[in-house]
Please model this.
Amino acid sequence: MRIFENTNYDFLDKRKFFYIFSTVVIIIGFIVLFTTRSIPLGIDFSGGTELQIRFEKDVNIADLREAMDNAGFSGMELKTMGTERDVLFRTPMQEEGQLVSDKIQQGIRAKIADNNFEVQRIDKVGPKIGAELRRNALFAVIFSLIAILIYLAFRFQFVFAVGAVVALFHDVLVTIAVIAIFDAIFPNLRLEFNQSMLAAFLTLVGFSSNDTVIVFDRIRENIKLFKNEDILHVMNRSINATLSRTIITSGTVFLTVLVLFIFGGEVNRSFAFTFAVGIITGTYSSIFVASAIVVDWKERGNALLLKEKSLRLKTAPKVKKINA
Amino acid sequence: MILGSLYFLYPTYKDSKLNSELKKLTGQDSLDFVDKYNQDLISARDKRLKLGLDLKGGMYVVLDVDVVKLLEDMAKKKDDQLLAILGEVKEVSKNSDELILETFKTKLAEKGQNLKSYYGELRDNEADIESRLKKEIDNSLDRAVEIVRNRIDQYGVAEPQIQKIGNSRIIVELPGVSNPVEVRKLLEGTALLEFKLVYDPQKAAKVMEAINKILVGDSTALKDTITTQVKTSSVDSSLKKTESVTSKDTSKKSAASEKNVTELKNTTGVDTKKDSLKDKKTADNKTVKKDSLKDKKDSSKKTDSAITSTDTSTNSDSTNQQLSEEEFKKKYPFFSLVNLNNESGTADGYVKDSDKEKVIRILNREDVKAVIPSDLSFAWSNKSFDAQGEKVHVLYTVKKDPELTGKVITDARSNIDPSNNTPIVSMEMDGEGSADWARITGANINKRIAIVLDNVVYSAPVVRSKITGGNSQIEGMANVQEAKLLEIVLKAGALPAPVKIIEERSIGPSLGEDSIQAGVSSSLAALLLVALFMIVYYKFGGSVADLALIINMLFILGVMASLKATITLPGIAGLILSIGMSVDTNVLIFERIREELGSGKPLRTAVDLGYKKAFSAIIDSHLTSLITGVILYQFGSGPIQGFALTLIFGLLANLFTAIVITHIIFDIMIQKGKHVNFG
Model:
């Protein structure tokens, strides 16, 4: 069985269109992000207290909200998780010493006496820790991008490294945009920026750079093999040659993550969704961003080179003429 | 490599098997089972793959040393102005990364004050005080860690993890604990250091004898707590084994009691006196050593006769009788658990780690409590020593009411005694404390005083003379570390190390089970799906790739088990990415081989060329991912580190299996003329 054998698509011809397409997605996504304030920060990063509680019987959110208002937690965020028995309580409060989680439980007991519950998870994160996590995450991402840039510049040409890193930025931005749009349309997915979503972003950076490197590897090889062909042809040829591996790998990994998204439970959902989007953008960007940038750079370089050559050609005879 | 992985994973399998067998049994059977397989259970539990708190349930707490509180405690005078300034500092520190000491200094300056007005003497200069405060703040972390460790050990959590992070943080992980209120109390409460007299050995032995009598008389309760019946031959042999452990115990005991014959002497004491005491001490040790060399039967008989000598009314006939081990167990159930060494002249009990639980249960029984005098309390030692692979704890009997609390200590310092190069700890007390101390030591010369932190005995030195002036010196520590620990403990009495919880996560066991089920079963399903696809698409090649995948998984898990790392949800995510990379590598190679086959090359050449040409892509992609992994591990916090770790191992395993193992398999298969295809 074979798929995409000996294909010959002209991927890079329409690259301008894909530049625009990516930019539009990113812009729309970020407009949505800032207008609807989707993708809320999880308490991992914002600080606060979060309780996940399983009730014995189905519970009415309105009742709980009233209970929380009575207990002094007005504006407590309440969400059911999958069933009407599982409820998530979240508040930015986490005052030290004062036991927010205990007060929440007392509040529930005061209002709903006939429905026993079990606290399944308590997270309390201080604001300092949240800030620290944010900073560490940012450092981690920036440093890994720099390290990738250096490594690729060393193994390939500098243009390739730039292309790969721009593609990585692109992937992160597009993924944020897509998640923002999805979160605005389907709030039931309950996507939020927490540690596992961060892990997903890191994973997608890894995956995307892997994919880009493999396409580049073939380009590197083919540039040596087909010295006389112009760069656009060589790159198209390379992308086509690696197409079946790209599709199979991305497809299988996508499948894995899809299974995790559907059956992996609430905890894994943010991770799985983010990574699933990342696989698509990562694969797309290897071709339409990373490679496209290399082509544009090289062609511009060639054009400049030609211009220079022609300039030299134009001037040279003149000099000759004067001499003559 | 595979064998290595399997070796490390075997305990995981064994642990789950033993535990599932244990679940099937109930009541007496389960107790017997635990007795029978105790050693196995413990060693398997120690070596198995550990699940993170997110999968198993438990508590994860980050503690921060409360520097503001510490500054308040350290101040020589605490007026309203200081409290007001500290209150402001606290507010500022909530949203600032500046060192609290710095904030404090600026706030003081704003009020026209300096550190000297609160922390210094007349002659001190500002910079000295500052560096002293800084050092105290840094040291407080060590104290806090010790206090936390001590308490958690007492709380009895299995496999707690206590980690020092940076210079003011402690991360505590308590698997299987889901009582946040209790744990909070445990971690945030102030430490209590006390000096307690060690109970009179003769009287203590009598109390133990009384406990023993209760255990002998109450045979039904006995069955619950101690196995007295020998059922099968295998149990018999395991009994013999444990008995030989105790014989080793006695030899170790001498070392321990040598340590415990620490000397508490007046620093201004007369030298000749000290020398004579030293002589006496060595003489003591000699007798202890001699005793320990005697064989086990002898020593158990010795214990026996010593007990009867303190309480002649019972079992007077048993002294003349050689008791077998089982009979001894039957007759002296308590002393078979708590070993006394009578030659040492103390009533310190030596308890094997596996017996500690039982002893605690016995001591908590109502009928046992009834015979314990109201002024006596049992206290465990902080340290344990190893005897034949098992830890042995010391059970002290001390006076319930402390003679003195640690608040009177003003300073403690560990040092090396230049005269004989042994570690010593010197301790200073304030005026009031010194007066009490002189009275206490004067009245208890040649008796022992236990240094007790949160009800755990850290040392029980013998008082050699009346100590006036408040300067005491403790010697006899085995090494510098032990002296350092004692210094930390004594300082904990002088200056408590206040900590506050800044992050707290508790995951109920049921949620952990839910997420493990969802996470693991979906990962397995995905793995199966991918494996199936590979076989369908690449036929024989695919099955080799699947084999490589399995080897990778074994390798990753094996390494995790050998490093005693824990598996967390992000770790599983890393595992999934590793699966992806493993599949990718094989796809890359197989596609190349197909290309070569397509251009008409023979199978052998095509395979070799495929591997050769794919190599650069594999190396580059793995290295970029490895770089990312290492950076994530370096900068990430807990969960991200777990992800990075599995990813790093996955990439390394994958490089090896993809480049070496599968290639070798294809080579062998082609050489043997087997039908090798790539779909």
Summary: Chain A touches chain B through 74 residues (CB under 8 Å). Chain A is about 70% helix and 10% strand. Chain A has a mean pLDDT of 82.
